[in-house]
Design a protein that fits this description.
It contains five helices and twelve strands. It has 223 residues and is α+β, with helices and mostly antiparallel strands. It has a single domain (2-208), classed as Aminohydrolase, N-terminal nucleophile (Ntn) domain (Glutamine Phosphoribosylpyrophosphate, subunit 1, domain 1, 4-Layer Sandwich), CATH 3.60.20.10. The strands form three sheets. Strands 10-1-2-11-12 form a five-stranded antiparallel sheet, with helices on one face.
Length: 223
């Protein structure tokens, strides 16, 4: 199972990204969905608003990711109704990790492979970002993370050089743009669009929705 998990992680074609800024969090992703060497979808959202205080993004199997998103939304709503208070972002991240942990350890012909980023704001206005590895481990992100998507090596190198702990939300959005553009230029599993959200004490806002369009240029000299 360990070898199968590692091999599957290497095949998760996508780029997801979370950046912790001094005044909030930036979360971003590309839009391409692949099956092996085939592009199956050019307009698939991978960073999604779960509710009014939480955003999640996924890398891995599409069906598993969609199922996880639905379960998180439903379970958080139930928890809110029972406790009469919104769950914390840490609780939401641990819920995602528990579901992922349970799914990967159930005997199945097709293993559940999903890496997740969870970000949002708590009732006191504080913002947090967590990463959940495909095996179910959960870690708080203090700077930036791209989980286990195929675009991870391309964005981490750029972030390592350009990130600083005093970065603003506005600067974080621009850094996320450059990171995703770097990934889509070199990673065959990422492309066709960019979605970027910001998370602050004022709320969640989608600030970038761009489409990457192929353009053919005639390079023949015309007399």
């Amino acid at each position: 199972m360990d070898a199968e998990l590692k091999n599957s992680i290497l095949k998760t074609g996508t780029t997801i990204l979370g950046i912790v800024c001094k005044d909030g969090i930036v979360m971003a992703a590309d839009r391409q969905v692949t099956a092996g060497n085939i592009v199956m979808n050019k307009n698939a959202p991978k960073v999604v608003q779960i509710n009014d205080y939480l955003i999640s993004s996924w890398t891995g199997g599409v069906a598993d990711a969609q199922r996880l998103g639905k379960l998180i939304a439903a379970e958080l709503k139930l928890k809110e109704l029972r406790a009469r208070a919104k769950p914390t972002i840490k609780q939401a991240a641990n819920l995602a990790a528990t579901i992922t942990y349970s799914s990967i350890r159930q005997p199945s012909m097709i293993p559940n492979i999903v890496g997740t980023l969870v970000g949002g704001f708590n009732e006191d206005g504080s913002t947090e970002l967590y990463t959940i590895e495909p095996a179910g481990g959960v870690y708080k992100v203090e700077d930036y993370d791209a989980n286990f998507g195929s675009g991870m090596p391309y964005v981490l190198g750029l972030l390592e050089r350009q990130y600083n702990k005093d970065i603003s939300i506005k600067e974080g959005v621009e850094l996320a743009k450059e990171s995703l553009k770097s990934s889509t230029q070199r990673d065959v599993g990422s492309g066709y669009g960019i979605d970027i959200f910001t998370i602050t004490k004022e709320g969640i806002k989608k600030v970038v929705e761009q489409e990457i369009v192929s353009e053919y240029k005639d390079k023949l000299n015309k007399e």
